[in-house]
UniProtKB/TrEMBL annotation:
Keywords: Hydrolase, Metal-binding, Zinc. One of its GO terms (molecular function) is dihydropyrimidinase activity. It comes from Ideonella dechloratans. Its cofactor is Zn(2+). It catalyses: 5,6-dihydrouracil + H2O = 3-(carbamoylamino)propanoate + H(+). Its EC number is 3.5.2.2. This is D-hydantoinase/dihydropyrimidinase. The lineage of its organism: Bacteria, Pseudomonadati, Pseudomonadota, Betaproteobacteria, Burkholderiales. Homotetramer. The keyword Acetylation does not apply. GO terms for cellular component: cytosol. The modification N6-carboxylysine is found at K151. NCBIfam families: D-hydantoinase.
Length: 480
């Protein structure tokens, strides 16, 4: 029997804070309560009044991702190890088949790549084309492989973009299977057109990236996807919401009673679009990701929508490329591989800019860094909750600890840090994964292959509610 007693902390869940000890036995939380006694041979971790919270769940990462002619530098080991160093104990990554590639082939390939993961992980599967085999494979993935969410790229024309016909077919199939459709909302046709226009005007540097992806391009796609989901009575989750207009579209749909959910990235909350006007190509190109960083006003709007509940989850879209890879777009910004990092920094950025500013309570911090993602993707309360029976994935949080982010000291293999030079107050002192201390006071003890694949059951609670609503509103023929 392997046990760990975390003594003298303040346990924070999404619903409350309490002074309590946490006893972990064989990777699972065995007890949460006052003055727990340690079993023989238990490891004791003195929390000394620090917060004890669910380990973070990053619901949007891309490790070992072959994209735009290259591959991300973080594989599933280095990426999840970086996550553990920042208090994130689970990721949901993406299987992204090439158009015409059988979904199951891509899924098996990604499962193999992920075998080196140091933390638990799961997969959304992208629908990049449509056909009979896609319809069938979605069923296999849901029923046999525990996939309960499918991703749709509305951008990346001539690559992985899906058209409205595919969206409709896939959303409908997802609903029948009890799986959540998710969208990368950007109008790929408009992006393509604006990219050509920028280049025709002689704008070939990274400043062309945000100019070809204005907020309206994101909002149009989000509203289209939301409208399709409304007609089909399917829930929908919009990934990496970056603009006020898109967040407002989600808030409006929710106010109408639609089950629409939004994710915001730590980067979009604190980094603004001035980075693209930096004269150094390497610096500006390192920030090229889609949707791009926005003008400052959008950040305040995103924070407000996160506080108000229109946006429920925080992620990173961790997708790291190094300078040599970004250089592929030196003469043409549309060839710069899209992606930035952040899996190690997300929790501390959210605490520092969210809790320390009074925007979030510690419980709300737990909601947006783990519990809400666990609920939406049907991992709750196994994940996202400090309670008896949950996985012993925890972070011991030092609200007074400080850290200055830098590429030089990060655990990601990337050579850039979008939070470079930012000093945060509030950092993980210890991370516990499956009941084992994997990060302690700056020392990372991540183990390749220790992470487990997480199956996520279909038909989360929102599907029951949608089914009732659909039954009550079912069309009725007129008897003549
Ligand atoms: N976000 C980004 O720029 N790269 C990763 C792929 C995606 O999520 O769109
Ligand atoms: Zn995306
Ligand atoms: Zn992504």
């Amino acid at each position: 029997m392997k046990s760990l007693l975390i003594r003298g902390g303040t346990v924070v869940n999404a619903d409350r804070e309490q002074r309590a000890d946490v006893l972990c036995v064989n990777g699972v939380i065995a007890e949460v309560g006052e003055a727990l006694s340690a079993p023989m041979g238990a490891t004791i971790l003195e929390a000394g009044g620090q917060y004890v919270m669910p380990g973070g769940i990053d619901p949007h990462t891309h490790m070992n991702f072959p994209f735009m002619g290259t591959r991300t530098v973080d594989d599933f080991y280095s990426g999840t190890a970086a996550g553990l160093a920042g208090g994130t104990t689970s990721i949901i990554d993406f299987v992204i088949p090439d158009p015409q590639q059988p979904l199951m082939d891509a899924y098996r390939q990604w499962r193999q790549w992920a075998e080196v993961a140091a933390s638990d992980y799961s997969f959304h599967v992208a629908i990049t084309w449509w056909g009979e085999s896609v319809h069938a494979d979605m069923g296999t993935l849901v029923r046999e492989e525990g996939v309960n969410s499918f991703k749709h790229f509305m951008a990346y024309k001539n690559a992985i973009m899906c058209d409205d016909e595919t969206l409709v077919n896939s959303f409908r199939r997802a609903l029948a299977l009890g799986a959540m459709p998710t969208v990368h909302a950007e109008n790929g046709e408009l992006v393509f057109l604006l990219q050509q226009e920028m280049k025709a005007q002689g704008i070939t540097g990274p400043e062309g990236h945000p100019l070809s992806r204005p907020p309206a391009v994101e909002a149009e796609a989000a509203q289209r996807a939301i409208a399709i989901a409304d007609v089909l009575n399917v829930p929908i989750y919009v990934v990496h919401v970056s603009s006020a207009e898109t967040a407002e579209a989600i808030a409006r749909a929710r106010a109408r009673g639609q089950r629409v959910y939004g994710e915001v990235l730590a980067g979009h909350l604190v980094v603004d679009d001035s980075v693209y006007r930096d004269p150094r190509f390497e610096f500006a190109a390192a920030h090229v990701m889609s949707p791009p960083f926005r003008a400052k006003g959008h950040q305040e709007a995103l924070w407000r929508h996160l506080q108000a509940g229109a946006l429920q989850t925080t992620a990173t879209d961790h997708c790291t490329f190094c300078a040599a890879q970004k250089a592929a777009g030196r003469l043409d910004f549309s060839k710069i591989p899209n992606g930035t990092g952040g899996v190690e920094e997300r929790m501390a950025v959210l605490w520092d800019a969210g809790v320390n500013s009074g925007r979030l309570t510690p419980s709300e911090f737990v909601s947006v860094t783990s519990a809400n993602a666990a609920k939406l993707f049907n991992l709750y309360p196994r994940k996202g909750c400090v309670a008896k029976g949950a996985d012993a994935d925890l972070v011991v949080w030092d609200p007074a600890g400080t850290k200055t982010f830098s590429a030089a000291s990060q655990h990601s293999k990337g050579d850039f840090n979008i939070f470079e030079g930012r000093t945060v107050t509030g950092v993980p002192s210890h991370t516990i994964s499956q009941g084992t201390v994997v990060f302690a006071q700056g020392e990372l003890r991540a183990e390749a292959g220790a992470g487990r694949y997480l199956k996520r059951p279909a038909f989360g609670p929102q599907f029951t509610a949608l089914g009732r609503k659909a039954a009550l509103a079912a069309p009725v023929a007129v008897a003549r």
